[in-house]
Write a structure and sequence with these properties.
Elements: E1 2-9, H1 13-24, E2 30-32, E3 46-47, E4 57-58, H2 59-72, E5 76-78, E6 82-86, E7 92-96, E8 99-108, E9 112-114, H3 120-124, E10 130-131, H4 134-137, E11 145-149, H5 153-162, E12 168-172, H6 182-189, E13 194-197, E14 200-206, E15 213-218, E16 224-228, E17 231-234, E18 238-240, E19 270-272, H7 284-306
Parallel strand pairs: 1-2, 1-8, 2-5, 8-19, 10-17, 11-12, 11-17, 12-13
Antiparallel strand pairs: 3-4, 6-7, 7-8, 9-18, 14-15, 15-16
Helix pairs in contact: 1-2, 1-7, 5-6
Bound molecules: NADP nicotinamide-adenine-dinucleotide phosphate.
NADP nicotinamide-adenine-dinucleotide phosphate (NAP) binds next to α5.
Amino acid sequence: MNRVKVLIIGSGPAGYTAALYAARARLEPLVIAGRENGGQLMLTTDVENYPGFPEGVLGPELMDLFRKQAERFGSKIIDKNVTKVDFSRRPFRVEVEGDMWEAESVILATGASSKWLGLPNETKLRGHGVSSCATCDGAFFKDRELVVVGGGDSAMEEASFLTRFASKVTIVHRRDEFRASKIMQERVLKNPKIKVVWDTAVEDILGDGKVTSVKLRNLKTKAVTDYKTDGVFVAIGHEPNTKIFRTHVDLDEKGYLVLKRHSMTSVEGVFAAGDVHDIRYRQAITAAGAGCRAAMDAEKWLEEQEHPGARAVPAAPRRA
Ligand code: NAP
């Protein structure tokens, strides 16, 4: 059986940064990057708020740089999926598509994914007018009419962005007020291209091969209407990718990993970084910072295991 000191699951900003720090600490980390590696930034175009890139950088390009930097210091990266974990004993066991790995410590950095409405036609028409990523797919809808579902900041952001292309954007929200921040709401409400349909649920997405309309139900009057649209952008939040860890570490009521001490989860030696535990900030820069923290905590914890009595957490932050 293969054994490593640090095994990192996930390959977004958190996973690769954890790998970079662990590699520079000579821990020879293994990253199980997943078949769709690179995380959510692979689905974006311009990233304009990642420090160090004054002109902006493309999401996939940024992730490629993260990966190369992690590899430069000796991280090993496998582009396969983790299929099973066992954190009930040490060394921990992680199964990767049939191959078993033993790990003295594990960093969970599997991120979060967009939530979907759960309608059968939503799955069928994904990529044919149904999307969860305006920056990826918005440009396909020049001069078309679109529906955005949701009432949070994501929905506001998607709707505003889509007006660059679409002739009209309708936000369909299930309540009579938005959850989004005031400033984002204001921007949407004064945009002449955006209309809001309140108190309404999308009950079905219709179209043969491509989206042609949505079936809307007014939740107050119960009236059902067929609403013409060329596309549907679902922006109803994200869910953490923790299904595989569910019975192994503590999760909160929304499924996010719970941190117990610094970046350590409920299992000693299993750490977490990024959107998988962070519902609040969800930024590439905060995820990268969390990856750094998790690697430093793992390093100190491993040291403590080898030399009991040594500090289990960093005494003071060190500079790179
Ligand atoms: P969110 O705040 O959880 O909002 C999700 C929205 O979708 C809510 O309005 C919710 O309705 C609705 N919704 C949830 N499930 C639904 C369903 N099954 N059917 C219909 N509607 C449903 O998620 P988010 O907008 O992705 O934002 C998440 C976090 O990221 C927030 O902290 C937000 O501030 C942040 N964020 C910030 C920015 C920015 O600052 N630029 C951009 C995007 C996100 P209810 O309101 O009725 O629950």
